[in-house]
Write a structure and sequence with these properties.
four-stranded antiparallel β-sheet, phosphoprotein, alpha/beta, seven-stranded mixed β-sheet, Aspartate Aminotransferase, domain 2, binds pyridoxal-5'-phosphate, Aspartate Aminotransferase, domain 1
Length: about 575
């Protein structure tokens, strides 16, 4: 298999066209290109390559409608660059490449789009900007003509559509956007996403994605090393999200125990039972439904006050299921529950799994990233005993959506479980090592390239950079917890320091704070969070999530995965909740 150093820069891959590594090279290349190419194309490329530099020096200007003055293309030598007089209102998509002589128009058009995006990005990080320009659906429908038409639109219209779409988009990079587990926008990750879209290929075979397949190999191995599997051995895949990764795990567990299920289906298999905590993610049940196991075969195990699965209850329910004639085949422990951020006790759970010979899965979609933190990885002690692990870099590591990995301890199982040998894709007589044709391991046929964002960010930050980013988010949540735990008007949903960045709390406005009738108080409190949230969205100042859980009425679930957030933003959130909720 590929050596670790394969994709290190420089070294043995000294081809003729790999010279874009040193910072001065693009410029040199662009100068050469400017001389070679006609119509000023080289100079335009030159301008494209220098966008970043322009951005740095002219921050406020970035918010203005983009304009490249004549001669300001960014070339560091005299040139004849002028922005060509392209009038987009006279042009259509058919004037762009592959149209004959479409290159200048294409570059000007794309430059226009890039300028738009750059302005949006810079604005997103500005605290004076709204997180969201909220409109009700019927209102938003009327604000623009979103209908699809028979006739083509001009490129001018296309640019207007791009602007309108961004105008009403949620600024997920905004330092005060806390609504989801996936927040923030990483600049290198974004660059990687742009590159991925430009390369526009499919992950299924080495022949169409040579570099991306190798990067997936290298990265999955690294992730398995971090889990603690010897030499990073095992298998894995990047899937379209944690829910799908969890379903893959369930599929593998069933196949491992009953390989005949692949051909014969569920009628060849006894009644199965899966186990997971009552606080686990709904995707476990969804997976059971999709795989024909049925949601009633997913047995929910009691969690303690802090949301951790109670191992004794797990063992009791396994025995009970066996007695009823079910075959326990799958336990999904959660490392970082979605609402409380709780970590199930993995060592105790793995002991039970071993005793009853059940596949142990760890759903670390949210909490798996803590494995990268020396300070916090103890919360996943025992993860190396798992048969499979879900880990979503698109959550705590802020890799642009989507990026989710399923890691599997046993090699070859995914291949056996999912392969169909489509001979139009996976010809057995190809001239390279076929183990790099990873596509047949997947349930999908075509598969999006999700790896490059993660890999490039990892390169840019180093493992220690990710660690620092994750530690900082946990520090911020601890700050929030310490700030509100004894503050007047606040009540924590459960006692004790949160284990992840989830901080769950009620805010009690003065009007209900001292109510004698506790039932009435509960009823009123249930309505507080939704109203404050609605007001946050109307003002566009911040966004944070809320939900009920079990018998607990609506509470705020604050989560921090946004590397742009600071202590001041946490202060702001508290002030804003009080400002918007004071009168309720
Ligand atoms: C978010 C989450 C998932 C689902 O991940 P997606 O990428 O949204 O599909 C699964 N499990 C847990 C614990 C999660 O928090």
């Amino acid at each position: 298999m590929a050596s670790h150093g394969f994709w290190s820069l420089g070294g043995d891959n000294a081809g003729t066209n790999t010279g874009s590594q040193s910072p001065s090279t693009p410029r040199a290349w662009c100068q050469a290109a400017a001389q070679k190419l006609s119509g000023g194309i080289g100079s335009k490329l030159c301008a494209l390559l220098n966008v970043g530099e322009v951005e740095k020096t002219a921050d406020p200007a970035a918010k203005q409608p983009p304009q490249t003055a004549a001669g300001s293309c960014g070339c560091n030598k005299p040139c004849t660059c002028t922005k060509p007089d392209v009038v987009f209102s006279d042009l259509y998509s058919t004037d762009l490449l592959p149209a004959l002589d479409g290159d200048t128009k294409t570059m000007t058009f794309l430059q226009e789009v890039v300028d738009l995006l750059l302005a949006y990005i810079v604005e997103s990080f500005d605290r004076e900007t709204k997180v969201i320009d909220f409109h009700y659906p019927n209102e938003l429908l009327q604000l623009n003509n979103w209908e699809l038409q028979d006739e083509p639109a001009t490129l001018d219209d296309i640019l207007i559509s791009c602007r309108a779409t961004l105008k009403y988009a949620i600024k997920t990079a905004h330092p005060r956007y806390f609504n989801q587990l996936s927040t923030g926008l990483d600049m290198v990750g974004l660059a990687a996403d742009w590159l991925t879209s430009t390369a526009n290929t499919n992950m299924f075979t080495y022949e169409v994605a040579p570099v991306f397949v190798l990067l997936e190999y290298v990265t999955l191995k690294k992730m398995r090393e971090i889990i603690g599997w010897p030499d990073g051995r095992g298998d894995g895949i990047f899937s379209p999200g944690g829910a799908i990764s969890n379903m893959y795990a369930m599929l593998l567990a069933r196949f491992k125990m009953f390989p005949e299920v692949k051909e014969k289906g569920m009628s060849s298999v006894p009644r199965l039972a899966a186990f997971t905590s009552e606080h686990s993610h709904f995707s476990i049940k969804k997976g059971a439904a999709a795989l024909g196991i049925g949601t009633e075969s997913v047995i929910c195990i009691k969690a303690d006050e802090c949301g951790k699965l109670i191992p004794a209850d797990l063992e009791r329910r396994i025995l009970e299921a066996k007695q009823k004639g079910f075959v326990p085949f799958f336990v999904s422990a959660t490392a970082g529950t979605t609402v409380y951020g709780a970590f199930d006790p993995l060592i105790a759970i793995s002991d039970i799994c071993r005793k009853y010979n059940v596949w142990m899965h760890v759903d670390g979609a949210w909490g798996g990233s803590l494995l990268m933190s020396g300070r916090h990885r103890w919360k996943l002690d025992g993860v190396e005993r798992a048969n499979s692990v879900t880990w979503n870099p698109h959550k705590m590591m802020s890799v642009p959506l989507q990026c989710s990995a399923l890691l599997v301890r046993e090699e070859g199982l995914m291949q056996n479980c999912n392969q169909m040998h489509a001979c139009y894709l996976f010809q057995q007589d190809k001239h390279y090592d076929l183990s790099y044709d990873t596509g047949d391991k997947a349930l999908q046929c075509g598969r999006h390239v999700d790896i490059f964002k993660l890999w490039l960010m990892w390169r840019a930050k180093g493992t220690i950079g990710f660690e620092a980013q994750i530690d900082k988010c946990l520090e911020l949540s601890e700050y929030l917890y310490n700030k509100i735990k004894d503050r007047e008007g606040y009540q924590m949903v459960f006692d004790g320091k949160p284990q992840h960045t989830n901080v769950c709390f009620w805010y009690l406005p003065p009007g209900i704070r001292y109510m004698e009738d506790k039932e009435e108080q509960k009823k009123r409190l249930h309505k507080v969070a939704p109203v404050i949230k609605a007001r946050m969205m109307e003002y566009g100042t911040t966004m944070v999530s809320y939900q009920p859980q079990g018998d607990k009425v609506n509470f705020f679930r604050m989560v921090i995965s946004n590397p742009a957030a600071t202590f001041e933003d946490i202060d702001f959130l508290i002030e804003e909740i009080e400002r918007l909720g004071h009168d309720l």
